[in-house]
Amino acid sequence: MPQLNPNPWFFTMLISWLMLTLIVQPKVSSFTPTNPPSYKTPTLPKTSPWTWPWT
């Protein structure tokens, strides 16, 4: 069963993880968000009871 032979796939996995951690991750981490979160206090909506016309 060739699926159980890790010889060709281990090198591929190792190279892909190295690319992810050494090249892609620092580039993505250096981006600044275009819309930073605002720290506003949430306001609760004003609720009023509904008056049903048929009661």
From TrEMBL:
Membrane topology annotation: Single-pass membrane protein
Subcellular locations according to the entry: Mitochondrion membrane
Cross-referenced InterPro entries: ATP8_metazoa, ATPase_protein_8
CC per GO annotation: mitochondrial membrane; proton-transporting ATP synthase complex
One function term, GO molecular function aspect: proton transmembrane transporter activity
GO aspect biological process, one term: proton motive force-driven ATP synthesis
Annotated keywords: ATP synthesis, CF(0), Hydrogen ion transport, Ion transport, Membrane, Mitochondrion, Transmembrane, Transmembrane helix, Transport
Domain of life, per lineage: Eukaryota
Region ranges (Disordered): 31-55
Principal location: mitochondrion
Record has Manganese as a keyword: no
Presence of the UniProt keyword Oxidoreductase in the record: no
Family: Belongs to the ATPase protein 8 family.
Protein name listed in UniProt: ATP synthase complex subunit 8
Species annotation: Asio otus (Long-eared owl)
